[in-house]
Amino acid sequence: MTRRLAVVAKKVGVSEATVSRVLNGKPGVSEATRQAVLSALDVLGYERPTQLRGERARLVGLVLPELQNPIFPAFAEVIGGALAQLGLTPVLCTQTRGGVSEADYVTLLLQQQVSGVVFAGGLYAQADAPHDHYRQLAERNIPVVLVNAAIEDLGFPAVSCDDAVAVEQAWRHLASLGHERIGLVLGPGDHVPSARKLAAARAVAGRVPEEHVARAMFSIEGGHAAATRLIERGVTGFICASDPLALGVVRAARRKGLDVPGQISVVGYDDSALMNCTEPPLTTVRQPIEAMGKAVVELLNAQISGSTVAPEELLFEPELVVRGSTGQAPRG
Question: Does the domain made of 163-287 have the CATH classification 3.40.50.1370?
């Protein structure tokens, strides 16, 4: 018991006496500290005292599709920090190919009696993907917030970066540099943010030829393969649905002996970590991660506290960050 008090106290950053008061239901402890101690018990694998077991754990599932794309760890850091300030403990659930699926994670989180779940870049962003596990959460009235894109019939609040504004900024930037053959490197056909980006490009350009649109998996390799096709079709300006895709375009151009930005210009999306350290530094459209992450936690906490939250999508304004991967279109 003494060791348990010491471990929990160290985890929370309070005295052993404070932990003891919480475990024994004694007064003199703030609600935030009390919830932090209970969350620490759950995370460390200690059983709660009998009189406290009926309460839902102060755990929040944070479900991410991967960690290789730096944008997801960035969101996790902001959201996790904001949750901790509220006495909520994030449980990171990262999908791996052939490993635990998003639906499996939902089952595990429900078994842990989580207070809520945040999804970033999940199957909800794919219109043709299975969504039954989301409906399972809705049926149990588990608070949920989605990051970037929302399937309307799911009925969850969402926090998104405005894809239409992002593409408009990128397109106008490339056009101002004289690029006339602008191409798009997007995600799969049922990927909602990619569909929004394509619709925005058509709105700002009037028409985008199908041969100037390439679909790819969200990776450097996917961007490389897609760009190879588009370069052969004469595209000189690239707008990409993620920074890794953009880095793949840069690699494809170099493999063909083309200079970036002398002959090929590339715009990414996210402004994820280290994009100012690439060669050349990547021009990209920045998602306001800090503001979006805090909004996610505010929406989630409101639901946990019993407030009704409208199933709407909050759109945040992106920012074009011009660096060295874009330049004047080649002549002739």
Answer: no
